[in-house]
Amino acid sequence: MSDAMTEAPGLRLGDRLDFVDIRVRDGLLIIEIAGAPDTVNVLYGMRAGYEAGWIRSEMPTLVDVSGFHGKIDWTAIKRVSELADWGGTRKRPSRVAYISPDQFFAFVIKAVSILFPRSLHRLFSDRSDALVWLQTPRTP
């Protein structure tokens, strides 16, 4: 079997230091933003993945911004929120875990949660803790 057939769907935009990497692994959407990339690439990548069918609107999502030091493009984030009806149902919202060592990022998550109201948003400093939370079964 070729490597292309075994690779998880995804794409990487930017260069080796400043990039947006969007992948799906085992039903988990993983978005890594590092350096100071053009954050409109998040919009481009999410649109491409959604239209191709490998990103679904209710997927649990891990957003790793631990290496991000650019500026937040609120217009691009709003446009991502308008691409689809993101999130689960009212009784079973999807989960979005953010990884950042900076606790100030909690304020950013509060604002983002307004744009994605059908998802639960939570900040973690540790990737393994975030993955446990994302994979913990939800009670009805």
Description:
The protein is α/β, with parallel strands linked by helices. It has a single domain, classed as Transcription Regulator spoIIAA, CATH 3.30.750.24. It has helices spanning 3-6, 40-52, 74-81, 105-115, 127-135, and strands at residues 10-14, 19-25, 28-35, 61-68, 94-99, 119-124. A hairpin with a 4-residue loop joins strand 1 and strand 2. The radius of gyration is 14 Å and the shape is globular. 27% of the residues are buried.
Number of domains: 1
Shape: globular
Main β-sheet, in a few words? 6 strands, mixed
- Strand and helix order: HEEEHEHEHEH
Biggest sheet: strand arrangement: 1-2-3-4-5-6
**The level-1 CATH class:** Alpha Beta
Q: What low-confidence regions span 5 or more consecutive residues with pLDDT below 50?
A: 1-6
Write the layout of secondary structure elements.
Layout: H1 3-6, E1 10-14, E2 19-25, E3 28-35, H2 40-52, E4 61-68, H3 74-81, E5 94-99, H4 105-115, E6 119-124, H5 127-135
